[in-house]
UniProtKB/TrEMBL annotation:
Protein name: Quinone oxidoreductase
Cofactor(s) this protein requires: Zn(2+)
Origin species: Thalassospira mesophila
Classification lineage: Bacteria, Pseudomonadati, Pseudomonadota, Alphaproteobacteria, Rhodospirillales
Key words, A-Z: Metal-binding, NADP, Oxidoreductase, Zinc
Chain coiled-coil ranges: none
Family: Belongs to the zinc-containing alcohol dehydrogenase family.
Length: 320
């Protein structure tokens, strides 16, 4: 699936291209499950500019189909997944650099891997690197019924945090509670930030994980405790407003960061260590796949439209 020009989901089109033999350090993967991620919407729509025409997609799981001459740690038939190998996951087959791939443990199915590797690695760095969450911390997770949101909530709860989620309907709040949130607040209600503080008896968060952006960001600054951290890691409702740094002083000497999963997993040793941590968390039951919808790869536009409609929960997969 490629785009010639940025725009609506219908701009994505199937393109048949010849696939070269894998280079010396590459492996060829036959995809079995492809993960949708909200960044795919930003890139398809032009909010994040791409050189055009462009393939799409960051995350997939599959079977190794061929290996380059220098590759020793993968063999044909191995089950693998990746989340940071460059654009092009929306394909039935592709070549990727072997150092960007992890082998899948037996307890992680291909579909679960495609639902978890990008979103789970995001939760991993947010909880372990950006703001290492400790037992007893209060954590706010916006869009807690979504793909990253459910993983982040369940894992934060497993680490001993008091987890407050927000979501866009009462049904989604129930899903957020099922995913580990102690409290879930419907942030489509007008005074939702007041409702949240009333529900926590005025307690504020050590860290607010905010990937909603425009709709939530200024409230996030108010919901962090003094010396707390606001982690702006996405813009599902649109970009967060510009602020003057001085506001961080006024709101309680806050820390503000805008991180990304890609640099956290750019080096192979970091990537492998982070993936091992994620697989360990899956094994312990701290992280679970929640697959909300499946589409054929040709129906990628339907996957995007579902995500943009805010009707989705959990992960959306595309099956080639
Ligand atoms: N920086 C990073 O490293 C990184 C990595 C991965 C993902 N992310 C970000 O994390 C967020 C979640 O990603 P995801 O792939 O798991 O997506 P997702 O949660 O499945 O979808 C985004 C969620 O945002 C909420 N939302 C609020 N306003 C929205 C709007 N106007 N339009 C659409 N959705 C809206 C929706 O939940 P409600 O209906 O409950 O509001 C929706 O479920 C995205 O913002 C993504 O960019 C960042």
């Amino acid at each position: 699936m490629q785009i010639e020009t940025p725009g609506p989901a219908s701009n994505m089109a199937v393109k048949t291209v010849p696939l070269a033999e894998p280079g010396a350090n590459e492996i060829r993967i036959r995809h079995t499950a492809i993960g949708f991620n909200f960044i795919d919407v930003y890139q398809r729509g032009g909010a994040y500019a791409l050189p055009l025409p462009s393939p799409l997609g960051h995350e997939a799981a599959g079977i190794v189909d061929a290996v380059g001459s220098n590759v020793t740690d993968f063999g044909v038939g191995d089950r693998v997944a990746y989340m940071n190998a460059g654009l092009g996951a929306y394909a039935d087959m592709r070549n990727v650099s072997a150092d960007k791939v992890v082998p899948l443990p037996d307890n992680v199915s291909d579909e679960d891997a495609a639902a978890l590797i990008f979103k789970g690695m995001t939760a991993q760095y947010l909880l372990k690197h950006t703001c290492p969450v400790q037992a007893g911390d209060m954590v706010i997770v916006h869009a807690a019924a979504g793909g990253v949101g459910q993983i982040l909530s369940r894992w934060a709860k497993a680490l001993g945090a008091f987890v407050v989620g927000t979501a866009g309907s009462d049904e989604k709040c129930a899903i957020a509670r099922d995913a580990g949130c102690d409290i879930a607040i419907n942030y489509r209600n007008e005074n939702w930030a007041d409702d949240l503080l009333a529900a926590t008896d005025g307690r504020k968060a050590r860290v607010v994980y905010d990937a909603v952006g425009k709709h939530t960001f200024m409230h996030s600054l108010d919901l962090a405790q003094p010396f707390g951290m606001v982690v702006l890691y996405g813009a599902a409702s649109g970009p967060a407003p510009d602020i003057a740094p001085e506001i961080l002083n006024k709101k309680g000497c806050l820390f503000l960061t805008r991180p990304s999963v890609f640099p956290h997993n750019a080096q192979q040793d970091r990537f492998r260590a982070n993936a091992a941590d994620l697989f360990d968390a899956i094994g312990r039951g701290y992280v679970k796949a929640s697959i909300g919808a499946r589409f054929s790869l040709e129906d990628a536009a339907k996957a995007h439209e579902l995500a943009e409609s805010r009707a989705s929960t959990g992960a959306i997969l595309m099956i080639p």
